[in-house]
């Protein structure tokens, strides 16, 4: 009756020559159209579509794709008004499980989750967008890729939060395994993910062996780094234990506890442990790859334990485990899961603060302390080796007379761009040698610097001559000058020592470009990059190596003092050596740079060597 009332009013208005706005007339006519009368066509509106807005529906190329959008409400946030990481983990696990069940056609459970790196925090009022799809199905397990971003509804800004890979297992009646149908990738992106999924699976299977091997072959350095103004905090003070009762809202339709819910509880106790070390509110930056060892059901009591294993310069690792027992305590506690989480404490500018040191307990505490360093190295390896596709690794550029100016410019500008990066983080300091790292999308770069009592110009002359590098760098066997391009550019054939697990020595063809300061405040620059020469092709005698961007920058601090810094954008074959030093499992880089200091001091007044340099 109400619809007919408005229709009669509309007709009276038209008969009385009352002008009705077209939008109102169109709304009424379209809203009251009969089933036999098509709506009057309207002119399309010209309006700008907000980034990320839903376009016209189109079939997803991957039938397993699931999209979830969640508005962040105050009940989802912490005291800072930021989305709780535990809540985000629950949403990630739910979306990934729905994607897995789309492919399997039956219930699925979370088996493992790869490393997760959280790039940004999410504030209340913003929208979390999660996209999950199956990358590859194996016999009874499948890998699900998850992409998480946030959307600011006021500004329209979109930003990536994290990318994760989860493994799910399909379960039939009574928990029996289900053989999965194969997945056929369609798009280029899906084919790449499908191919790499097999390598990631192999990495998961050897994860424990990798840690054991690293600990076996690494020297046991027990020396603690010196940090001004901070004393060691006993690890026992950070210990946390809490219990949770699994209720029906915490479980899936099979009665098994959601993996995301367990992860959220684990994140909660880990945050408390981290807070007890730093006496501040920490921010979760990464979660180590972990495996669920068994299921938990409604009615179980989950005991969650956490403790800080190790504190690095600007981050700390918290170990946390979950154990389950039933009401009757008829059986001993079941180990459900163990995870390792990396926290930082941010200052007002959003930069990581220096953290107190941890004094590990004798026995198991010392073991956890050392394992935390090994895991840090493994995380760096996985983050920068696995994510770096071989098709994207740049090859050595052929050098000839036509492009020598461009290559020299590219060589120096690449090093200067690396030097100008703002996000360098102090990773280690030993014997006045400071080691910094820079984590980017697909590369791990490092910087080593020290102050030396030598004029900057003299240090520049000594370090730009690769033929003398073997005098202080034990990794260099020889460096032959192949071609002098001009006074500032030389091409060398370098032979280095054998790498671990390699049967042959490495050789490089390197373009060395040097620049004196253009104005006051500029450093002396010596840049290195790989090139190819027809006269020096790769041979069976050596393994041909590459360097993408490396070199020295030397700043004069006074007439007799200089700050010498070496930069290197580590290539995949060199990462194992770098990350071992970053994690504190080796001091080889620091020792090499101390040898460089001795070389500079020994030769700073040698007039004969000055005439021979470069």
Automatic annotation (TrEMBL):
Keywords: Cytoplasm, Fatty acid metabolism, Hydrolase, Lipid metabolism, Mitochondrion, Phosphoprotein, Repeat, Serine esterase, Signal, Transit peptide. It is an enzyme of class 3 (hydrolase). GO terms for biological process: acyl-CoA metabolic process; fatty acid metabolic process. One of its GO terms (molecular function) is long-chain fatty acyl-CoA hydrolase activity. Pathway: Lipid metabolism; fatty acid metabolism. Its main location: cytoplasm. GO terms for cellular component: cytosol; mitochondrial matrix. It catalyses: hexadecanoyl-CoA + H2O = hexadecanoate + CoA + H(+); butanoyl-CoA + H2O = butanoate + CoA + H(+); tetradecanoyl-CoA + H2O = tetradecanoate + CoA + H(+); dodecanoyl-CoA + H2O = dodecanoate + CoA + H(+). Residues 424-583 form the START domain. Residues 62-174, 236-349 form the HotDog ACOT-type domain. Has an acyl-CoA thioesterase activity with a preference for the long chain fatty acyl-CoA thioesters hexadecanoyl-CoA/palmitoyl-CoA and tetradecanoyl-CoA/myristoyl-CoA which are the main substrates in the mitochondrial beta-oxidation pathway. This is Acyl-coenzyme A thioesterase 11. It comes from Zosterops borbonicus. The lineage of its organism: Eukaryota, Metazoa, Chordata, Craniata, Vertebrata.
């Amino acid at each position: 009756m109400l619809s007919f009332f408005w229709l009669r009013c509309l007709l009276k208005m038209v008969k009385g020559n009352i002008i009705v706005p077209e939008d109102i007339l169109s709304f009424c006519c379209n809203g009251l159209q009969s089933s036999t009368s098509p709506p009057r066509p309207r002119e399309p509106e010209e309006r700008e579509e907000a980034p990320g807005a839903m376009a016209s529906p189109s079939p997803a190329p991957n039938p397993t794709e699931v999209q979830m959008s969640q508005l962040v409400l105050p009940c989802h946030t912490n005291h800072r008004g930021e989305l709780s990481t535990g809540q985000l983990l629950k949403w990630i696990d739910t979306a990934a499980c729905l994607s897995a069940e789309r492919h399997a056609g039956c219930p699925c459970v979370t088996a493992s989750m790869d490393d997760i790196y959280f790039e940004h925090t999410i504030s209340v009022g913003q929208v979390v967008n999660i996209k999950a799809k199956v990358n590859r199905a194996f016999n009874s397990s499948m890998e699900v890729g998850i992409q998480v971003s946030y959307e600011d509804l006021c500004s329209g800004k979109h930003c990536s939060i994290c990318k994760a890979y989860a493994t799910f297992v399909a379960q039939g009646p009574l928990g029996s395994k289900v053989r999965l149908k194969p997945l056929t990738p369609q798009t280029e992106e899906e084919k790449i993910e499908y191919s790499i999924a097999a390598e990631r699976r192999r990495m998961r299977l050897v994860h424990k062996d990798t840690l054991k091997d690293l600990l076996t072959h690494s020297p046991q350095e027990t020396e603690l780094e010196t940090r001004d103004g901070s004393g060691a905090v006993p690890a026992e003070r950070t210990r946390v234990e809490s219990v949770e009762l699994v209720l029906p809202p915490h479980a899936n339709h099979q009665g098994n506890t959601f993996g995301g819910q367990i992860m959220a509880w684990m994140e909660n106790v880990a945050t408390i442990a981290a807070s007890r070390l730093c006496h501040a509110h920490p921010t979760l930056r990464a979660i180590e790859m972990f495996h669920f060892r068994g299921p938990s059901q409604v009615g179980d009591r989950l005991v969650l334990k956490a403790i800080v294993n190790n504190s690095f310069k600007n981050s700390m690792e918290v170990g946390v485990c979950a154990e389950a027992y039933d009401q009757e305590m008829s059986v001993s506690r079941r180990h459900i899961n163990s995870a390792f989480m990396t926290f930082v404490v941010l200052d007002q500018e959003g930069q990581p603060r220096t953290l107190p040191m941890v004094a590990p307990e004798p026995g198991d505490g010392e073991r956890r302390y050392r394992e935390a360093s090994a895991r840090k190295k493994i995380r760096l390896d996985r983050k920068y080796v696995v994510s770096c596709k071989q098709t994207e690794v740049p090859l050595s550029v052929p050098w000839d007379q036509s492009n020598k100016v461009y290559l020299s410019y590219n060589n120096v500008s690449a090093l200067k761009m690396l030097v100008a990066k703002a996000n360098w983080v102090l990773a280690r300091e030993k014997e006045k040698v400071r080691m910094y790292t820079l984590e980017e999308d697909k590369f791990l770069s490092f910087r080593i610097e020290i102050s030396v009592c030598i004029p900057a110009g003299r240090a520049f002359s000594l370090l730009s001559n690769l033929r003398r590098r073997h005098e202080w760098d034990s990794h260099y066997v020889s460096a032959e000058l192949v071609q002098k391009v001009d006074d500032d550019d030389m091409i060398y054939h370098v032979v280095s020592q054998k790498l671990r697990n390699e049967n042959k020595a490495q050789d490089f063809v390197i373009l060395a470009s040097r620049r004196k300061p253009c104005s006051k405040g500029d450093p002396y620059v010596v840049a290195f990059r790989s090139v190819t020469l027809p006269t020096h092709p790769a041979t069976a005698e050596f393994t041909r190596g590459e360097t993408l961007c490396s070199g020295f920058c030397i700043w004069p601090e006074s007439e007799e003092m200089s700050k010498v810094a070496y930069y290197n954008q580590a290539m995949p074959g060199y990462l194992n050596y770098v990350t071992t030093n970053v994690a504190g499992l080796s001091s080889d880089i620091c020792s090499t740079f101390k040898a460089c200091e001795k070389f500079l001091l020994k030769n700073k007044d040698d007039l004969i060597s000055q005439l021979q340099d470069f």
